[in-house]
Structures are given as structure tokens and as C-alpha cells.
Design a protein that fits this description.
globular, about 0% helix, about 60 residues, binds zinc ion, about 40% strand
């Protein structure tokens, strides 16, 4: 990721938001479906699901 000009994290202001890709149900790749902060202590992330943006869920955990 070095040398790429990713957007700065809005939460901590020191990490960068790194895009993640995913695959849709039909197997087509979805670019930039989620963004996560490169600072692990920050943990800021956002996801885009079916055109809706959801903020602040920790990747790998689920909340009820
Ligand atoms: Zn951050």
C-alpha cells in the first residue's frame, strides 16, 4: 500500500482508509465494498451493502 494516496481516516486522522474488495452473489467482484483504517488501534471502517453505507462495525465481529 506504500505510495498510494488513500484518503485519510476521518476518525483518528493518522491512519489511511484502505479499500477492500468482495464478491457478489453472482460471483462478480465488487471493488471498494468496504474501507478500513490502516491504524489497527483505530479500527474505523465502513461498508457499502446494496448501496447503503454502514459505519463503525468492527470487522470480524457481529453485534445484535
Ligand atoms: Zn483511523
Amino acid at each position: 500500500m506504500e505510495g498510494r494516496d488513500w484518503p485519510k481516516c476521518m476518525k483518528c486522522g493518522k491512519g489511511q482508509l484502505i479499500p477492500l474488495s468482495d464478491y457478489g452473489r453472482d460471483g462478480a467482484s465488487i471493488m471498494f465494498k468496504a474501507w478500513v483504517c490502516s491504524d489497527q488501534e483505530c479500527g474505523y471502517n465502513l461498508r457499502i451493502d446494496n448501496g447503503e453505507i454502514s459505519l463503525g462495525r468492527t470487522i470480524g465481529q457481529s453485534f445484535k
